[in-house]
Amino acid sequence: MSSSSSAVEAKAFPDGTTDYVPLRNKKADLNKVHISDTPMTWSNWYKHVNWLNTTFIVFIPLAGFISAYWVPLQLSTAIFSVIYYFNTGLGITAGYHRLWSHTSYRASTPLKIYLAAVGAGAVEGSIRWWSRGHRAHHRYTDTEKDPYSVRKGLLYSHLGWMVFKQNPKRAGRTDITDLNEDPVVVWQHQNYLKCVIFMGLVFPTVFCGLMFQDWLGGFVYGGILRICFVQQATFCVNSLAHWLGDQPFDDRNSPRDHFITALVTLGEGYHNFHHEFPSDYRNAIEWWQYDPTKWAIYAWKTLGLAYDLKQFRANEIEKGRVQQLQKKLDQKRATLDWGTPLEQLPVISWDDFVAESKNGKALVAVAGVIHDVTDFIKDHPGGKALISSAIGKDATSIFNGGVYNHSNAAHNLLSTMRVGVLRGGCEVEIWKRAQFENKDVTYMNDSAGKRIHRAGSQVTKVSQPVASADAA
Ligand code: HEM
Ligand SMILES: [Fe+2]
Ligand SMILES: [Fe+2]
């Protein structure tokens, strides 16, 4: 950590977060068991609660709802509150999140000051604290080090992680040197409480008071309740966006895409995309998807206030989508019966094949693979006679058009009847088929009974005879 950052740490205002560890107690803290590491009981639950955070996100909003009962809502105050809601929301989504946490674009100083100011008005901690946690969330998604892991429960990821104390030593570490070098970030962090009180409460109260003579309404609706709605909306990025919707790009972790989440969070709802391409200034890539944060950033760009908007190439985005589709397809494939994998079949000589066919087993060779059609003869859609005529013979050409060009379904059905590989059979055909059925096949038994290892069409290794390998 740079010296400038430790200066920030020392001067920082305790913004009610796990960010701040009083320096005088650092030594003692090292040996002390953190409250979050002890089980919660009836006698100690209040020690688990982060009362400052709880005041900001639970008690004050509650007080707002109660006082709203006595304070009439004027139309002009309501309109102002909605507009201010969007501004403070953008402070979080376009500022805290896309600009500072992910550097997905660069902003001119006036825009930065605006975003830092309205972001403070959303009352969600300082930029520095918020972005540090958010970077840890991306780096350690769904793990113990994810500060708001949805694996600990939906409510935990929404609110619980702030309501209950967290052990700062357990939070994942991330690089925030760039933030410590940003004077706007540092100033806002050091003056956080002043910023919150001014932007969160004083500004809406004074604005509504002076403009519409509605001081109380400005305080209750433009201040407290608007804060509550912005908080709840943006908290949904941590909860709902990891719980509701589809995973078109990757399903290893919890992030999901959903229109409803996007609607609530000013466009942050395309969260599966966002975790794959976090430094893209967009969360929604289609024009018809709802992402007002993206629109705002784009508008600022046209006004010359924002620049260097980062965007992943469509080619990279499509690759992710195709791979996820492929993964789903492979999972589906794996549930189906494709017959005994070719590489596991015994190698049978032509003479043995003919001899066994004469001994009452209905064996038919197609493309170097021997099939037992005994139970299928009576069901053959082309009739008993035709299929019987191929017993003990190589039916490759008659099966593939000589008499009748069988469908893909017939090829699939044929695979389920396979019992052996013909020594001296058409090895390349068999290999192609093996790869068609299972792209993970890396070796096959060749016609002479050797195990041929391949990567694509290249032979990489020939190993011991199959007979001895199978015996082992
Ligand atoms: C070796 C195992 C065989 C299997 C598993 C098999 C499977 C099938 C299947 C599933 C069909 C339904 C239509 C289609 O999917 O194309 C079919 C139709 C047919 N098969 Fe085979 N077949 C076999 C061997 C043969 C042989 C050796 C001949 C000819 C010598 C033959 C001649 C036909 C003909 C002519 C039809 C068309 C029937 C019609 O649509 O009227 N099949 N077979
Ligand atoms: Fe996330
Ligand atoms: Fe993010």
Automatic annotation (TrEMBL):
Catalytic class of the enzyme: oxidoreductase
Keyword Calcium: no
Assigned keywords, A-Z: Electron transport, Fatty acid biosynthesis, Fatty acid metabolism, Heme, Iron, Lipid biosynthesis, Lipid metabolism, Membrane, Metal-binding, Oxidoreductase, Transmembrane, Transmembrane helix, Transport
Cofactor(s) the record lists: Fe(2+)
Domain Cytochrome b5 heme-binding span(s) in chain numbering: 345-423
Keyword RNA-binding applies: no
Primary location: membrane
Function: Stearoyl-CoA desaturase that utilizes O(2) and electrons from reduced cytochrome b5 to introduce the first double bond into saturated fatty acyl-CoA substrates.
Protein name, per record: Acyl-CoA desaturase
GO BP: mitochondrion inheritance; unsaturated fatty acid biosynthetic process
E.C. designation(s): 1.14.19.1
Compartments it resides in: Membrane
Cofactor comment: Expected to bind 2 Fe(2+) ions per subunit.
GO molecular function: electron transfer activity; heme binding; iron ion binding; stearoyl-CoA 9-desaturase activity
Family designation: Belongs to the fatty acid desaturase type 1 family.
InterPro entries, per database record: Acyl-CoA_deSatase_haem/ster-bd (IPR009160), Acyl-CoA_DS (IPR015876), Cyt_B5-like_heme/steroid-bd (IPR001199), Cyt_B5-like_heme/steroid_sf (IPR036400), Cyt_B5_heme-BS (IPR018506), FA_desaturase_dom (IPR005804), FADS-1_CS (IPR001522)
TM region(s), chain numbering: 51-71, 78-99, 192-212
Pfam families cross-referenced by the UniProt entry: Cyt-b5, FA_desaturase
SMART domains on file: Cyt-b5
Membrane topology according to the record: Multi-pass membrane protein
GO CC, one annotated term: perinuclear endoplasmic reticulum
Catalysed conversion reaction: octadecanoyl-CoA + 2 Fe(II)-[cytochrome b5] + O2 + 2 H(+) = (9Z)-octadecenoyl-CoA + 2 Fe(III)-[cytochrome b5] + 2 H2O
